[in-house]
Design brief:
disordered N terminus; 136 residues; EC 3.5.4.5; Cytidine Deaminase, domain 2; 19% strand; metal-binding; 5 helices; alpha+beta; Cytidine deaminase; 5-stranded mixed beta sheet
């Protein structure tokens, strides 16, 4: 993707808009901090998710959890590009748990729209633990 910056910008602008649409469905009555996420799959689908809070805060589901659920529900595959936004449409950095979840379903090469620009998940989560460690 890096080779065609124009495509990068178009893809990530579209993902940011899709994430903003997804956050409209968030359930965030406790924090009032709705979050939306969107990703492009290796077969060209867009998958989305939103956060779902719970009165027991530790059970809250991040938007990335819903996104990965939709990925698997709609045919699986790999994530290739990702964006996550807050209610103002500003890009967010996924939490540690969600970085690990994204690693599982996108790997090191997953390209992510971050507040500082587009980068790979390997840059965001260096030396990640993944399925390769379990094969030994």
């Amino acid at each position: 993707m890096k080779a065609n910056q124009e495509l990068d910008n178009q893809v990530f602008e579209m993902l940011q808009a899709e994430a903003q649409e997804a956050l409209q469905h968030a359930y965030a009555p406790y924090s009032n901090y709705p979050v939306g996420a969107a990703a492009l799959t290796d077969d060209g689908r867009i998958v989305k998710g939103c956060n779902v809070e719970n009165a027991s805060f530790g059970m809250t589901l991040c938007a990335e959890c819903g996104l990965v659920s939709q990925l698997l529900l709609t045919g699986g595959g790999r994530l290739v590009a990702f964006a996550c936004v807050d209610k103002e449409g500003k890009l967010l950095v996924p939490c540690g748990r969600c970085r690990q979840l994204l690693w599982e379903h996108g790997g090191a090469q997953l390209m992510m729209a971050m507040p500082s620009g587009v980068c790979s998940l390997k840059e965001v989560l260096p030396e990640a633990f993944g399925p390769d460690y379990l094969e030994a």
